[in-house]
Each structure stands twice: as structure tokens, then as C-alpha cells.
Amino acid sequence: MDEVFGRRDTDSGTSVRGTVVWGLRLLGLAIVVLGLALWLLTSSGLVLLPGGLVVAGLAVMVVPGLLAGLVELLS
Length: 75
Description:
The chain crosses the membrane at residues 20-41, 47-71. The chain is mostly helical. Helices cover 83% and strands 0% of the residues.
């Protein structure tokens, strides 16, 4: 029975890292949608806040995946 459990080669850090990255991607998507909704549903003079939200949301969606890939490449 020990051989059955011994052959299981899983890295729990990878699944946790993937979960965190996907969670941050969903958060970034929500921030982008919020920025677009704020831009479309408010006065046209308000541009900096929605634009900042869209840029921040895109950064939150992209950067964690890049960092996770870099960490996996280096380790």
C-alpha cells in the first residue's frame, strides 16, 4: 500500500499558486469591468479614474501569471 501512495508525485505548491493566480485574474477582470462601467455610465469628463482602473485591472490580471511562470522557471 505504501507504493501506491509513494508513487503519487504532486506538488501542492503548484495548485495553490495556480489558484492564487486565477483568483487574481478574476479580481483583475472585475476591476476592468468596474472601470469600463464607471466610464460608460458616468459623465464624459470623468476619464482618469476609469482609465486608471482599467490599467490597474489589466496589471492585476497579467503580472501574477508572469511572476508565477518566472518562479517556476527559476526553481
